[in-house]
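Exercise 7 asks you to align residues with tokens for two separate proteins.
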Amino acid sequence: MFFNSFHFAVFLPIVFALYWFVLNKSKTTQNALLILASYYFYSCWDWRFLFLLVFSTLLDYFSAIQIEKSQDSHQRKMWLWLCISINLGFLGVFKYYNFFASSFADLAQSFGFEASPILLKLILPVGISFYTFHGLSYIIDIYYKRIQSERNFVDYSLFVSYFPLLVAGPIERATHLLPQLKIKRDFNFEKAKEGIYQIIWGLVKKVVIADSCAVYANAIFDNYETMNSLSLILGAIYFAFQIYGDFSGYSDIALGTSKLFGIDLLKNFNYPYFSRDIAEFWRKWHISLSSWFRDYLYIPLGGSNGTTWFRVRNTFIIFLVSGFWHGANWTFIAWGLINALYFLPLLLLKRNRKNVDEFKLKFDFESMKIIFNIIVTFTITCFAWIFFRSKTIQDAYLYISRMFADLHFSSQYFKIERYNYELIYLLLFFIIIEWNNRTKIEPISGKYSGLKIGLCIAALLALGVYSDYKEFIYFQF
């Protein structure tokens, strides 16, 4: 079930009505309804994988209790690593087994050995990376005694399976979400209104921006051999806005949907394309994943403490693991490596925490410097996205080679011609809106909200009928 589908447009009001007007007597009935709704939501992808979700929930629930009950440190550690190993084992089999098997065979053949790996015909369960990380953060927090284990199985099950965040995040923490699930929620009209506004804006990002960019990004990346430099540059820019509109749009819809049920989720994007350096970009892009790796991998490795070598090592580990988390392909690892190389000078010069403040532009030299830094950061980010989008490392290399070899900057005709130049104008208009919204809590609320909603709905109706891309990019991760 997609957020941008007719199915969801029917599903959501039904659950909303039952939640607030029928099963609103206690938090237990509210939570039980949301669990059933979440399981139905997930089963719409493939009901057979419900057993994985339920198994992961049971495993983490009982492991946490055993860790908390155990007085012996060795036994606590045994339960921790048993739970982590099983969770990562399932993730590894479904997501990474074929990648490792094929890579080993290629390596063996490069040394002259024949290798015929046994590949598994497995479908990647949607959302497995996200709900696995939900559970792992909970287990690790229990082990380090940051929180107490949750004994109410209904509440914990909802924490893992809550449908707005189930398939593509944000990756929630038990410390943030569980306390909200343990109390009865009362209807708040203002919060519900904010949720509707955020859903509408998320749909605009997805349908109007991301899906429009996808038309040309796909045409350019799939036929890069025939494209000139201008088209290839535009292809990278289109994909940058496609993945941002797609993923941040999903996050907005998820956060807005959750507000309808009186539950706040973690903010996942904070206008990352207005970042002044790559460190600021990663503090604002997929915030829940970046903070997860920081808290559960980077800091346990030693973080920024120790020698320069250890800090560099930890940084590369984080970015490479982040790339590998996104998919079983060398392109994602290369994407992570490139971002690590971007980050390295800031780390060595101790400037990675320089741009943490908010800023305003004026007509002075400092503002010109800020604009220049934003453009440079966006440019190198688009360059890295080429590897993320390409099917193979070779494709990425050839794409970039042709970008600099064929220095032709003329407009090219596309068979899918719809709104070629109009798309560029649309993106410029979108950038202006995003810049104006970056200091606001809600993008389309406040003054003239009625007019803004009307324009958003008009854009959805005008461009939504041409939308060929229903699935969200991050569903594959």
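Second protein for Exercise 7:
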Amino acid sequence: MASEENNTKHIRPSWDEYFMSLADTVSHRATCDRGRSGCVIARDKQLLVTGYVGSPIGLQHCDEVGHQMKQVIHEDGKITNHCVRTVHAEQNALCQAAKQGVSVDGATLYCRMTPCRTCAMLIINCGIVRVVCERKYHAGAESEEMFRLAGVKLEYFHDEVQQYEKQ
């Protein structure tokens, strides 16, 4: 009743907003400060699994020992930097689905930015039909093309590149 007294009406988030906010909450468990990402996979308005960026079980995290950086030189000569100590949020969500015996076929994946090339290939092969990202990834053009060719619908909340240190 308090909202009526204040003449403010509660506005429920859309399903996409709801699941994206859950992905953001999951990201608070991430252990790499370059892109504290979280991911959720949902189907039929039901949460299936979550994942966040972090080192493999039993190995040290970036937050503990620092980043393990690798440079990638792209065909166009552009150089990008990547921390390879961690498993991506999307990969961890897919691993959780496999460990728990949860099918993600026909599901929607929610994440912070365009999945990388490897994540995109896994997403396609798992049968996920839709990917919703908060923002674009600075090296995500190849993934965008793979999703297009595979018929995976890709949507963005914001049509801008996610910014973080040492891209």
